[in-house]
Amino acid sequence: MTLLAAARSAGRLRTDPAARGDREGASLTWLLAGFPLWWALGMGVLIIPFVAAVATVKLVRRRSISVPPAFGWWLLFLLAVTLSLANLGVDPPGVVPETWFSSLAGATFRLGFYCCCTLIALWAYNLLAEGKLKRDTLVRLLGWLFVVTVAGGFLGTFFGSFEYTSPVEALLPKAVAKDGFVQSLVHPAAAQTMDFLGYETPRPAAPWGYTNTWGNNFAITAVWFLIAAFCTPLRTRWRVAAVVLLVASLVPAVYSMNRGLWLGLAAIAVFAALRLLVSGRPGGMLALAGAGCAAVLLVVLTPLGTVVQTRLDNGHSDEGRAFSSERATELVIEHSPVIGFGSTRKTLGSGESIAVGPTPECPRCGGRTLGGNGQLWQVMFAHGILGAVTYLGFTLAVLWRFRHDHTAVGIAGSAVVGFSLITMFYYNALVTPLLFTLLSYVLLAAGRLPEASHHGPETENR
After folding, report:
1. Which of 120, 318, 369, 421 has its CA 20 to 30 A from that of 281?
2. pLDDT per residue as tens digits for the range 331-379
3. According to the UniProt entry, where is the signal peptide (predicted)?
4. pTM reported for the whole predicted model
């Protein structure tokens, strides 16, 4: 009888949706929870296509696929990206000439990762819809990435020269491994070193490859860390530890000298405060305002304030960004307004002269990348007005659809999606920031699922 009962229990386990969901969602968990490992191995974002392949298989095997609200806008954007490939061989005036095939690698990279992020997000939504993944589990995974980001920030701030040859990099042919773009993918480095202050300064980048990507992910994951720490069941000692980490995170956030991050955090705080006020929770708004004021005072009354002022006095990238943005807009409107040019291009010279180019003393001079200084400019230049309209249409449609969701997850998810509207002027979204934004959208959409009330008890109004 005992053996028979055990066999029956095993059978129930095999057919239990929750048990199957744990196994099915393991790849998603490993992608997010294990990202420090992937970075250390030299995989980084290269692990994403492998997880997307798993997601594709799992989605294809389903009898039906659930689609979140406003998803049609995103599919239209992907269509615009695909159509723009037809213009890869078109060279607008004032850019370095390229052929269709020479531009194909960069365009394929973007389209491929757009699709990978889409597949992973759609898979996560279906896991949530079927009750195989809890919303609070996904919230905590994204919150964990804030811990990872802060740790990488401290590494980059205090050990900025830390770098090494990863196992993946060691396996590549030397000619391939030395390429600058390949280096950004497979070569683990703690920071990007820049000299716009008149001396070399490390700016945190680990484990996201670039300082701007680090700042983008810092803000996105900070939102979910707050929800995981203070809006889900958690022991007091862990909440105290969360407060300590948030205070400590000000150090790498300031030393990153990332003005976009500072602006983004302020915008998120204002957005969340207004949503709390509108939903009839002035107490929550006052608590958030108090925390924000305390953070500002900590910065102003410590040596961190000097770093902030020094950075504000040295806007080294302002002129170059303005030139790239204006030039990208002009070329698209005049030469390919509908579908753009399929990919980015490099300018001949700079805004001052066509003869200006990179030198050992100024490696970043000249050769500006059109579409490389913000998601909006990249989408517009590479995919035209059609791409820009569908991309913005998706973001605005999501914000509109969930404007009445005043739960903790609802406000947080809307804040992240709204944050992308601000950062698109100076941050590129691919790869990880886009993935985390789409997962935030999935968390928003999952709030309308019947299972949400059973699998997300931590998302009540606070």
Report:
1. 421
2. 999 999 999 999 999 988 654 444 444 544 444 455 688 988 899 999 9
3. none
4. 0.89
